[in-house]
Amino acid sequence: MKQPIRNIAILAHVDAGKTTLSERILFAAGEIHRPGRVEDGLATMDYMPEEKERGITIESGVAHFEWKNTWFNFIDTPGHVDFGAEVDMALTAVEGAVLVVSAASGVETQTLASFRKLRESRVRTILFVNKLDNPDYSLDETLINIEETLGVRPVLMSVPQFKNGKMCAMLDVLSQSRLVHSESGAEVLDDGWESDASAAEERALLKKYYDEAVEFASNFDDEILSLALENKPVPPKMLLRGLKALAASDEYVICYAGSALEGFGIRSLVTALSFFLPEVPTFGENELGQVVRLRHFRGVGEISLFRSHVDLLRRDWPAGFEFSRLKANMLLPVDEIRSGDIYAMVSPFETELGQVIRLDGCGMCSESAERDAAGNVVENAALNGNTAGTATGNAAPNGNAAPSISENYLPLLQTRVECVRTEDYAHVERSLSVLARMDPSFRVQKDDGGFWYLHTVGEVQLDVLLARLKREFGCEVRAGSPEVRWQERLCREVGPAENTFQIGPHKMSISISASPLEGDAHDIRLSAEFMEKAPIEILAGVRSALLESTEVGVLGKGPLVGVRFEVHRFEWTEGALPPMIKKCCADAVAKLVKPADVQLYEPVMELSLECPVNFAGLVTGDIQAREGKVKEIEGDGKTHFLKADVPLRKIFGYATGVRSISKGTALYSMKLLGYRPATV
Fold it and tell me: What is residue 515's DSSP assignment?
C-alpha cells in the first residue's frame, strides 16, 4: 500500500507565530534537531537573507516530513500583505491548511482575509490558537472571537494546562490523554496520568470537551446521534469518523490550541492533519504535473516547484527533466516521482505559473497565453469584444477554479530603475523578466528612454525585489523613490483618430476610437470583428500595442483603465513586423487620447490599527491629519482599535511615523479599498 500524501499550507496574520509553529512541526516530526527562532534569524523555513533580516516570511518555504505513516509537503506562507500572491499560489497546491490565531490579538485583519481565501479555494482548514503560554491570554475569549468574526463554530480538540502560571501540559480530547514534555523537549504521553488521583479535575475537563465534540459530530453521523440520544458512550474511532464529516462542513472548524514557542499542542495538531484532510485528488490523463511556483538560485538558474500528477520512475522521465526534493535552498535528487507530491523541477524550457506539463514533456495551459518582454501575460483571445490583456486562470491542481492571481493584485507603487552600467542593460532586462514571472503581483514597464518602472504592491515587496535583483542575479541598478500609482479614466468618448506608419515598402494605417466602460471596470476591451481572420501576428501586435499604451497612461501617473477600443479600419502590407504594428497603434492612441480627456483617480486604503489606549488620541489625530476618515472605533479599556479610509499618497511610508508616535506599540494593516477621483 502506497504511503498517503498530504499537502498543507500554514497561514496567519503577521506576528501570530506562523513560522515558529512551522519550526515546531518539523521538530516534532524529527526533520530538524532543534527549532530555529524567527527572532534570532534561525528559522529553517526562512532561508532568504531578506527573511532572516526582517524576521518575516517572503517566499513560500517548502519542507517535507512524515507523521503517522503519512507523507506531508508543508508550505509556510508569508503573512505580510505585500506577498499575498505567494499565499494564493500555495493554496492551488494543497489539500488543507492550518490557520494560526494569536490569543494575544484574536482574529486580525489578515487572519480574516486568509480564512476567506481558504473558504473560496475550498481548502480544508484547521485552526490553531497560539501564544497561550501567557496565562493572561484567554482561550475561551479567543474561541468566542473566532465564532463571532469568522462565522464558524470552533470545535476544541486540545486544552492547555498550567502550573504556577506556566504551561505544563496539553490535554488531547480525541485520545483522552495528557501530553507533557520529555527531556528533549518533545511532547510525549504522560503514562501515569490516568492513575493519578489528583488529575480528576483534568479528566472531567476532557470529558466535557469530548461530550461537546460528540454533540457536534452527531449532526453529521446518524450512528453517533443514536448513541448520544441513548446516553451511550461513543468510541473514539466513531467520533473521529463524525469529526471528519464535520471538518468538511462550512458551519464548523476543528480547532487546536497551545504554544508554538513553548512547543505545546504540536503533536495533537499534526496528528489531526493526518486525520482530517482530504486525499490527493485524481488528475487528468497524460499529465506529468503542474507548475505551482518559480524560484531562482544563483549558480543553478531557474527551477519550478512542481506538483506531480503521475507516478513515474527516473527511467521514464521525459528527456531533459530532472526532479529533486527542495530543502531550504538545497536540491536533493530523487529517483521517482509520485502523484500529488511536490518536487523541485528543472525543465528544458521556460515554464509558467500554473502551466501543465504533459507526459511527453511538452507544456500546455488551460488558456493559451503569451508574455511580452516585461513578463506580463497577454491573452490570445480573438478580438471580438472579449477583454484584451486580462489573463484568465488555469484550473487549480486541487480541482478548484483558479482565476488569474495577477488580477487580484493591483500594484499601487511605481519606481523608476536604471542600469548603473550601460553594458548591463540586456542582463537587467532578462533578470527583471524572470522576477516578474516568479511573482504574479509584480509588473515591469519598459520605457523607451532605456529604463524601467517597477510596479509593486507595497514598499516591502519593492525593497525585497531590489535586494534579490542584486543578490540572485548580480544586477547593479539605481532605483528612484517609489511613487503612488494612480489610475487614469476616460471622461468621454474620443475619436476616431487616424494614423499611418511606413518603413520602406511596408505601410500600415489604422482608424480607432475609444469609450469609457461603465462602473469601476478596469480592464481593456477591444472590438474589431472584421480582424478575426487576420494573421495571428497582426492580432498580437495590435493587442500588445494597446495594452502597452494604456499601461503607460496619458499623464504618466498610472495606467489608463476601463477603456473599450474600437478599430474601424486597419490596413497593412504583407510582411509587416510586430514592432512596426505596435508603433502604428501606439502613435494612434497618442493622437486619440489627450490629457483633457482623462481624469486621475487615486488609491484609497482601508487602515486597520490597534494600539495601547494611552496612544489613541495621538494615533487618531495623525490619521485625520493625513486626510483619513475614521469610520470605526472600538476598545476594551486596554487596547484601542480603529478603521479608517486614507489616501495612499498621505499614508505612504506610514510605518516610520506610527512607530514614532506609538513608541513601537501600534500594529496595523492596510488593504486597497478602491479608487476615487483625485482632488489634487
Answer: E
Q: Could you give the angle at the alpha carbon of 79 between the alpha carbons of 77 and 80, nearest 5°?
A: 125
Note whether 124 and 11 are same-domain residues: yes
533: Cα separation from own chain's centroid: 39
Instruction: Assign 3-class secondary structure to 492-546.
Output: CCEEEEEEEEEECCEEEEEEEEEEECCCCCCCEEEECHHHCCCCHHHHHHHHHHH
Asked if 385 and 342 count as a contact pair (C-beta separation under 8 A), the reply is: no
Distance between CA 375 and CA 454 in Å, rounded? 12
492 in the same domain as 478: no
HSE of 90 in the Cβ direction (CA atoms, 13 Å)? 29
Interatomic CA distance for residues 289 and 281, integer angstroms? 13
Q: In CATH, what number is assigned to the domain containing residue 537? A: 3.30.230.10
| Nearest CA among 526, 525, 488, 490 for reference residue 510 | 526
**In 3-state terms, what secondary structure has residue 375?**
coil
C-alpha cell at 533: 481572420
Phi first, then psi, for residue 391 (nearest 5°) are: -70, 135
The verdict on residue 629 lying in a domain is: yes
For 508, the domain range is: 488-596
Same domain, 257 and 127: yes
Q: What is the pLDDT of residues 506-519, one digit of tens each?
A: 888 999 999 999 88
Residue with cell 513560500: 60
What DSSP line would sit under 211-259, residue for residue? Answer: HHHHHHHTTT-HHHHHHHHTT----HHHHHHHHHHHHTSSSEEEEEE-B
Residue bearing cell 514598499: 459
**Residue 487 β-bridge partners:** 601
Burial class of residue 407 (count of CB atoms within 10 Å of its CB; 0-12, 13-18, 19+): middle
Is residue 368 assigned to a domain?
no
480, 497: one domain: no
Residue that finishes a domain, picked among 223, 253, 276: 276
Same-domain check for residues 183 and 70 = yes
Provide the residue type at 481 as one letter: S
**Nearest residue to 281 (alpha-carbon basis) of 70, 96, 62:** 96
C-alpha span between 106 and 199 (Å, rounded): 30
The pLDDT tens digits for 47-99 are 445 444 544 444 555 788 999 899 999 887 765 666 667 777 778 889 999 99
Say whether both 69 and 133 belong to one domain.
yes
Give a three-class secondary structure readout of 450-501.
CCEEEEECCHHHHHHHHHHHHHCCCCCEEECCCEECCEEEECCCEEEEEEEE
In DSSP terms, which residues pair with 71 in a beta bridge? 5, 66
| Number of compact structural domains in the chain | 5
| Chain segment 633-666, per-residue pLDDT in tens | 888 788 888 999 999 888 877 877 888 888 877 8
Beta strand pairing status for 452-456 and 369-371? unpaired
Whether residues 571 and 441 share a domain: the answer is no
Q: Is 209 helix (H, G, I), strand (E, B) or coil?
A: helix
Question: What's the pLDDT score for residue 114?
Answer: 86
Amino acid present at 347: S
Q: Specify if 230 maps to a domain.
A: yes
Residue 326 included in any domain: yes
Residues 404, 392 contacting (CB under 8 angstroms): yes
Contact predicate 248/124, CB 8 Å: yes
Q: What is the mean pLDDT of the chain?
A: 83
The answer to whether residues 478 and 493 belong to one domain is no
Q: Which three three-digit cell numbers place residue 407?
A: 488580477
Whether the bond into 154 is cis, omega within 30 of 0: no
Pairwise CA distance, residues 600 & 486, whole Å = 7
